[in-house]
Structures are given as structure tokens and as C-alpha cells.
Amino acid sequence: MEKMIEDKQRYTFICSKGTLDGAYPSLVLALNARRLGHDVSLFYTFMGINVVRKGYMSKLKFHPPGFLGAIPGMSNIATSMMEKQIEDANIPSIEEIFEMAQLEGVKTYACKMTLDMMKIPEDELIQGVEVMNAEQYLKLAGTCSINMFT
Q1: Measured distance CA(101)–CA(15) in Å, rounded
Q2: Which candidate, 73, 62, 65, places its Cα nearest to that of 21?
Q3: Is the distance from CB of 105 to CB of 38 less than 8 angstroms?
Q4: Is the distance from CB of 140 to CB of 41 less than 8 angstroms?
């Protein structure tokens, strides 16, 4: 196992959910893979696109599954509870992890089809986020050891 970690590999992580529990896994995995020395790309698509839109990252919420998520105000309560747990565990915020990932060389991409579908102009994306279409992503993914939806 140690030998595999020493060999530089390429990884992609796809984030398709614009929620706290949708954004954290891809960012944490990407940052840790980069710190192990691998080439890492994050691809944001569908509702995950909101993670990389200016002003949206700080507004991400946690939506409880099932009937609890349908109760008015429950996502606000659940989000507050999750943010408290994150803080108590000394886990950096989404914004902090995203900034660390960018500074450490994780490449970030927004899905072209999602931008077109949702009529989001490219200038609404956080600085450093590039746009990639499905064909470009598939060509990149074909060169990777790991491609993972989170």
C-alpha cells in the first residue's frame, strides 16, 4: 500500500449536491489526495454548481433526509446543529477547505451543461474555477486512477 501512495496518480471527484453534506466529502478527499502528492480535479455539476458560485458557499445548508426534511424550518435547525458539530470538531469551514484546496493545487471545474441549463454566467463562478464540458471531463477521467461521486 505504501508504494501506491508514493506513485503520483490522478483523481477526480464529482460534487453534484449543493449542500454541506454534499460539499464536504469531495473537498476533504481532494485536499487529502493533493497533500499525498496526486493531481486532483473537482468537477461541480447540477446543484453542486452552487458550491463554486460567488456568495453561495457560505449559504450551504444540511437538509435532513426523509420526512424530517419536509418540516418547515428543519433544514435551518439541522444546519445549525451540523455547523456546531463541525466547529466543535475543529473542522475548517467549506470556504476554508476550498481555499486550501485551491492554494495547494486542486483544480476546480464547473460543468458547462449545468451552467447553460441554469443560465448561470461564467463570471458568477469563484475565481480560479474553470468550465469543462462532459467530453472534456470524460477525457480527463479516462486518465485517472480514481473517479468518484461524493
Answers
A1: 14
A2: 62
A3: no
A4: yes
Exposure letters 41-78 (e unless 16+ CB within 10 A, then b): bbbbbbebbbbbbeeebeebebbbeeeeeeeeeebeeb
Helix residue ranges per DSSP H, 14-110: 20-35, 74-88, 94-103
d(CA 100, CA 119): 29
Q: What is the pLDDT of residues 106-137, one digit of tens each?
A: 999 999 999 999 999 999 999 999 999 999 99
CA atoms within 13 A on the CB side of 125: 23
Q: Where are the domains of the chain?
A: 2-65+73-149
Query: What CATH number has the domain spanning 2-65+73-149?
Result: 3.40.1260.10
Query: Model pTM?
Result: 0.88
Tell me the per-residue pLDDT of 73-118, one tens digit each, with 9 for 90 and over. 888 999 899 899 999 999 999 999 999 999 999 999 999 999 999 9
What is the rounded CA–CA span in Å between residue 42 and residue 127? 14
